[in-house]
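Input.
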Amino acid sequence: MVRAAQKAKRDSLANARKTKRDSMAAARKAKMDSIALARKAKADEKKAKAAADKKKKTSELDKLASEPLKKGQNIVLRDVYFETASFKLKKESYTELNKLVSILKKNPKSKVEISGHTDNTGDAGKNMTLSKNRARAVYNYVVSKGIPKKQLVHKGYGQTKPIADNKTEEGKAKNRRTEFKVLE
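Output.
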């Protein structure tokens, strides 16, 4: 009887350990499933935000592609990028610039000013030169794609025409821009 009681006690302890292990394994699995769901939801949210941002960024030029240009229109070219402290265009800019070329080809009687702008970081004179060179780089690209020089002018404004507060990084980023304005 003692042996039967000892065996029953061992079996009971073994069952308790197994139940505890199973319970812990189930809790770990539930936690991992919860983490995986949270990661997926975060990734989906990030994708949706990126898609909305992309739509918002390109919508101005996309709208202009289907309607004639009007004197006085001023459009920020949102996806035009340069090397830091340089006027060398990055390849990521070509899509946006090709949209501009397409718009200008559909509006051959329009004359536009391509303007470069900087934030207020650094020397004002260097910023003016940089903005002029960046406007000229966009001008040269557009001319290289078949737009007549007589349809374009380019000008750098440096830090003289901010559109946002230069006290924040977000504001400075908005002020570093290339625009085109319809003159005629």
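Residues 60 and 149 are 24 Å apart (CA to CA).
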